[in-house]
Amino acid sequence: MRVSRFAVLVVLVGCSPKEKAPEAMPAAEPAMAPVAAAPAAFSLADAAGKWTYVAKSAMGDTVLVTAELNATADATGWTITFPGRKPLPMTVMVSGDSAMTSAGPYESVLRKGVKVTTEGVVRMSGGKMVGTSKAHYSVKTADSVRSLIIEATRKM
C-alpha cells in the first residue's frame, strides 16, 4: 500500500514529541447483511384488468392526468384511455419485477396541439402499479421532457 506524503505529514505534525504515531488498526470484517429475497417477477396475468391510472408531478404533490389503463394477460392489447378520447395502444415489455411501457405519439392531454410520446416503468407494490414515466414533447424548446410519478389502482 502506498502512503502519500500528505498523510505522513499529517501524522507527524499531529503528534507531540512525547506521543507516538498511531498504529494502523487491522481492518474489521464487514458484517454480513442478510440476503433479501428477490422481488417477484412482474406478471402480466396478475396485472390483467382495468386500472385507474394517475400521473402526478415529479414531486408527487399534484395530479396532472387521470386515465383508464386496460391491461391484458399478455404484452398485446394494453391501452390507455384519457377522458373524452379513444383508447391508445401501449407497448409493454417485462423485465424482472418491472414492466416498461410506451405510448404515442399522440396529442398531449396537458399541452394542447402538441404531440407527446411517453415511456414508463411500473412495479407491483401493495396491489397497485407504481412507477415513473417520462413525457417527451415534440417541441423545439427547452421544456421538451416532463417527469411523472405513476400510480394505478385496480378498478373493482
What can you see in these coordinates?
This protein is mainly β and 156 residues long. Helices cover 8% and strands 45% of the residues. It has 2 helices and 8 strands. Strands 1-2-3-4-5-6-7-8 form an 8-stranded antiparallel barrel. A hairpin with a 6-residue loop joins strand 3 (79-81) and strand 4. The chain is globular and about 70 Å long. 19% of the residues are buried. Residues 5-16 have low confidence and may be disordered.
- The dominant shape is globular
Strand tally:
8
Mean pLDDT: 85
Largest sheet: 8 strands, antiparallel, barrel
Could you list the spans in which at least 5 consecutive residues all have pLDDT below 50? 5-16
Biggest sheet: strand arrangement? 1-2-3-4-5-6-7-8
Separation of the first and last Cα atoms: 64 Å
Structural category: mainly beta
- What percentage of residues falls in helices of 4 or more residues? under 10%
Q: For the CA atoms, what is the radius of gyration?
A: 26 Å
Topology of helices and strands:
Blueprint: H1 5-13, H2 44-47, E1 49-57, E2 63-71, E3 79-81, E4 88-95, E5 98-107, E6 115-125, E7 128-137, E8 145-154
Antiparallel strand pairs: 1-2, 1-8, 2-3, 3-4, 4-5, 5-6, 6-7, 7-8
Top keywords for this entry?
156 residues, mainly beta, eight-stranded antiparallel barrel, 8 strands
Quick overview:
The chain is mainly beta and 156 residues long. The chain is globular, with a radius of gyration of 26 Å. The chain has helices at 5-13, 44-47; strands at residues 49-57, 63-71, 79-81, 88-95, 98-107, 115-125, 128-137, 145-154.
